[in-house]
Amino acid sequence: MNTEPVVLSVSAAAALAICFHISIIPHEIDFKIKRLLGLYVASIAGLYYLLHRETVTNPGTVTVLSATVFNAALTASILIHRMFLHRAGKFPGPFMARVSKFYSVFLSVKKMQYHKEVEQLHRKYGDFVRTGPREVSVIRASAVQTIYGAQSTCSRAPFYSQVADHPNCSLHASRDRVYHNLRRRAWDRGFSTAMLKDYEPRMGALTDLLIAQLRSRVGTPVDITTWSNYYSFDVMGDVGFGKSWGMLESGKLHKAINELHAAMALLGYIGQVPWLSRLLMELPAATKALKGFQDWCWKQMEEKKKAVAQFRPIEAFCWLAVETPSFGPWGARAVDSWVSVLPVRNLSAATRLFGRVEVLDKPRDLITWLLTDSKLDTKLPSQAINEDSRLIIIAGSDTTASTLAHAFYFLAKYPGAYKKLQNVLDAAFPGGDAEFSNATACGLKFLEGVIFETLRLKPAVPGGMLRMTPPEGLTIDEVYIPGDVVVSVPTHSIQRDERYYEKASEFIPERWMDEKAHMVKDKRAFIPFSKGTFGCVGKNLALMELRMVLAKVALNFELEFAEGENGSRIEEETKDTFTLTVTPLFVIFKEREK
Ligand code: HEM
């Protein structure tokens, strides 16, 4: 046999593998895997054809040998680079984390509590831990502003592209800052102070429904995790889509929500390796699992689009309010005296001319804000807006439900705190829960303390939000982190760090009040809603929900663990599926004696 072509082919394969690896190092290839696999298969077929044409003996064997050498050389090159030469190489961490991000999958699969695994790694390796080949977790309060602050030069990491590509992705998956800002504007309008005022009574009606359901179960064990889910989903139905999903009414979780939780579980396992989750999501079996929830969300959106098509364009019909006293008897009370209804073509010109202009047919839910934003209208592909419909449900429901369930857990565990909360609320709303207003509740420091302490100890998104360092890298205190490294501050761990909180693992709502303010040593280490450009857009809505439910429940009922419940399951078995998936918590509500 002539060995020359064999040696040539095998050496070329090894050289090609190393050159290929060196050429991809500076690039993000995570979501090009399918194309690269296609290229790989085509190259093998091409090689076979070439060898066959040149009448080399055993072209099949030589092709397999060359492919094997290519694979081995590529693997060796990747491993050597990751272990000894990588730009993130100076950071300590487990050996396997240096080699592959699959180590994080292994840690996630153990108990599906990756946030707790990361906490252990920080205990062992210090403030800067290499949690993946190109990933560093940083547990320093000083890192928060640098990584997440409004002026941060970091961008979103590939993690965010695992469901869909730009520009067909949701707001949450938008990694391009300009595109993100354009979309975020419409979301911000949907969560403006005026809109929150509009949502408050609607949310109040749903809270009253929750209270009525709890009242009908007084004295019997209630799974408050599930009821928190019904509540938060129904709120998002109303605020997000302007319709009722009726879960509070029926006491049943919608089938689509079960499918959502199955999808989130998948994310909990493989979300650590974004390219793999993207590949899996495209497989028919996985798509089928996700499809139910996706179809349901998209159906909600289609219905909404039809309704919005009937909607008068924003800048066509406006109430006009004129703020100058010279405008007759209404002038003095101009702010709430609407003097005319006129068609207006240009809203900002009309505002300049008349002082103040209010839109007559103002959207009353989030989706309508997104669909009618004139700047977004032409630029947003319809898949992107469909993805946003999923985002509203995922981001707005599970997070609030998890926080509510955990707040009830702490209040049942610490009856003294519950009593104190009731006293504070009784003083603020002597006429009972009918008097509740978000404005008054905002001023109740103990209520705020209960909410903040829950968000501190049980942040609904417990892991670090992954960001990519800019090409020039960044410096945190004395430590330089090179460019194109994925960095994060682990929310769960930093919020339990003794350097930043006194008695950090204890539930002490008073630490958020003047009397024990010294127990919060560094407020920068409080990031349950993240921060900056990509921070939570629904924060104020979520806080309003939490205030309202906790206040109305505490004003109406006594609370205790049900028999056989001590909260250990919620502590030990709740899962990190990007948001927390909380285990059932059984409590008993009793009518308050007044
Ligand atoms: C206690 C409740 C909540 C918590 C703890 C929470 C937490 C967070 C966090 C940590 C992020 C940043 C995620 C990241 O960077 O990957 C985020 C983003 C977001 N949240 Fe919330 N959230 C809550 C409630 C809500 C609600 C009620 C909504 C309403 C729809 C909402 C909508 C969003 C959206 C749309 C984003 C993406 C923002 C963007 O990309 O600009 N959240 N949230």
UniProtKB/TrEMBL annotation:
Keyword set, alphabetical order: Heme, Iron, Membrane, Metal-binding, Transmembrane, Transmembrane helix
PANTHER family, A to Z: CYTOCHROME P450, P450, PUTATIVE (EUROFUNG)-RELATED
GO molecular function, one term: iron ion binding
Required co-factors: heme
Protein's recorded name: Cytochrome P450 67
Ranges that cross the membrane: 6-24, 36-52, 64-85
Any Pfam family matching the protein: p450
Gene3D superfamilies per UniProt: Cytochrome P450
Positions annotated to bind heme: 536
InterPro entries listed in its UniProt record: Cyt_P450, Cyt_P450_E_grp-I, Cyt_P450_sf, Cytochrome_P450_monoxygenase
Organism: Sphaerosporella brunnea
